[in-house]
Automatic annotation (TrEMBL):
Record-stated family: Belongs to the thioesterase family.
Keywords attached to this entry: Hydrolase
Sequence ranges assigned to domain Thioesterase TesA-like in this UniProt record: 20-241
Stated name of the protein: Alpha/beta fold hydrolase
Single GO term (MF): hydrolase activity
SMART domains found in the cross-reference section: PKS_TE
One Pfam family recorded for the sequence: Thioesterase
Highest classification ranks of the organism: Bacteria, Bacillati, Actinomycetota, Actinomycetes, Kitasatosporales
Species assigned in the record: Streptomyces melanogenes
Length: 247
């Protein structure tokens, strides 16, 4: 099942379940290479590759979260023969949530949604980074510490990355979730205790978006706390899947 939208770095055809990973703004599927390595072969990890980056650089970015979710849901249809768990970080959490809603409408209830580094959909805040200058975008990158220092120092690389980043910021900053019933799947919200863009009380409001169980875990770190806690987070995912699958 080949698709430009899906990367499968460590195929695990014998795995009982799959984990679908959604990158942050400006991010790509390779952000989840190490998580895939850690979870395989127990879990078959699929990482989403949005247009406008890496091998899809020539394609225009999709600057609307709802459209992205529609397309990704279609691409995931052939992979729903096994239970899916969704994991998103930052912008990826919003997309994962929208995909979960669409999957449930089609009769596929995920084993769970991991929402990392993102306030609940019920918390709407205006954002203007996508309207700013290239310098404004760079300042935001440095503030969040989510981009390799080598990239920030390489002007040619930056020129390639900035249009994609601006498109992604347009998507997430103009995202206004449509009214929707709570998800039927459990939600696990993850956050850094020193995140400059997400308040812990905003993360806790993810509980309103599920009729199943809710759990919140706070880690030491900023917006990209995931990078420093990958073993603990992959353990959390593995244990959640094992418990949910046993039910």
């Amino acid at each position: 099942m080949s698709s430009p939208w899906i990367r499968r770095f460590h195929p695990a055809p014998q795995a009982a379940t799959r984990l679908v990973c959604f990158p942050h703004a400006g991010g790509s599927a390779t952000y989840y290479f190490q998580a895939s390595q850690a979870l395989s072969p127990e879990v078959d990890v699929l990482a989403i590759q949005y247009p406008g980056r890496q091998d899809r650089l020539a394609e225009p970015c999709i600057t609307d979260i709802s459209t992205l979710a529609d397309r990704i849901t279609e691409e995931l249809a052939p992979w729903t023969d096994r239970p899916l768990t969704l994991f998103g970080h930052s912008m990826g959490s919003a997309i994962a949530y929208e995909v979960a809603l669409r999957l449930e409408r089609r009769g596929t209830v995920p084993l769970g949604l991991f929402a990392s580094g993102r306030r609940a959909p019920s918390v709407v805040r205006d954002g203007y980074v996508h309207l700013g200058s290239d310098e404004d975008l760079l300042a935001e990158l440095k503030r969040l510490s989510g981009t390799d220092a080598q990239v920030l120092a390489d002007e040619a690389l930056l020129r390639m990355v900035l249009p994609t980043l601006r498109g992604d910021y347009h998507a997430i900053e103009t995202y206004r979730p449509a009214p929707a019933p709570p998800l039927s799947c459990p939600v696990v919200a993850l956050s850094g205790d020193d995140d400059p863009v997400v308040e812990l009380d905003e993360v806790a409001l993810w509980e309103r978006h599920t009729s199943a169980s809710f759990r919140m875990r706070v880690f030491a770190g900023g917006h990209f706390f995931v990078d420093g806690h990958l073993p603990a987070i992959t353990r959390e995912i593995r244990e959640h899947i094992a418990t949910a699958n046993a039910r």
